[in-house]
Design goal:
heterodimer; A: mainly beta; 11 strands; globular; B: 110 residues; mainly beta; six-stranded mixed sheet; 10 strands
Chain lengths: 115, 110
């Protein structure tokens, strides 16, 4: 099970740190991702990190504003989001699995960027 | 590249429906294609991975295929049930391991 937290209302230009707590899975064995979904829109992949945390990948659209990290000892995944824009408003999902199989999805956390 | 799906499809219960996913550039067979189901108010869940493999618990009414001639992937659902009504997304990735999702298809079971 994956449970996201840290979402909420933030002003444009602000920062937010999302977290994802894993339970009931061998967290350290999973590659992890963040995927978001704007209201009424489709899915957008944001970032990926290998099981060890040594390799990370990001969508080009993020332009270095977001940083993914993980703590295998604490079975947690994080997404640091800076310079937030109105268009970053979305539900953010934590997802376990590689790019050929997004196996386990969290319930999502809502991020609203608005003044 | 982009993955193009029909915006919506509809079919009656018990029938078979196919949802297409066309890759704009590069060969569809180069990278695996996955399919995700998202019921209203729920998180997505995989129904097909690696072109045609079903995750545990997904009924064999769901199947996936690849067609090189049309450069597209397809998700076929047979014996349609009301519970199949959902949004369906295809997904693949590029040579840099950047993930791409299709725009999604809304399936209505009439």
């Amino acid at each position: 099970q994956l449970v996201e937290s840290g979402g909420g209302l933030v002003q444009p230009g602000g920062s937010l740190r999302l977290s994802c707590a894993a339970s009931g899975v061998t967290f350290r064995g999973f590659e992890m991702n963040w995927v978001r979904q704007a209201p009424g829109k489709g899915l957008e992949w944001l970032s990926y990190v290998t099981s060890s945390g040594t390799t990370k990948n990001y969508a080009d659209s993020l332009k270095d504003r977001f940083t993914i990290s993980r703590d295998n000892a604490k079975m947690s995944l994080h997404l640091q989001m800076n310079s937030l824009r109105v268009e970053d408003t979305a539900v953010y999902y934590c997802v376990a699995g590689g790019i050929t199989h997004f196996d386990v999805w969290g319930q999502g956390t809502m991020v609203t960027v608005s003044s | 590249f982009i993955l193009t799906q029909p915006h919506s499809v509809s079919e009656s219960p018990g029938k078979t429906v196919t949802i297409s996913c066309t890759r704009s550039s590069g060969r569809i067979a180069t990278n695996y294609v996955q399919w995700y189901q998202q019921r209203p108010g729920s998180s997505p869940a995989a129904v097909i991975y690696e072109d045609n493999r079903r995750p545990s618990g997904v009924p064999d009414r769901f199947s996936g295929s690849i067609d090189g001639s049309s450069n597209s992937a397809s998700l076929t659902i047979s014996g349609l049930r009301a519970e199949d009504e959902a949004d369906y997304y295809c997904q693949s990735y590029d040579s840099s391991s950047h993930v791409v999702f299709g725009g999604g298809t809304k399936l209505t079971v009439l």
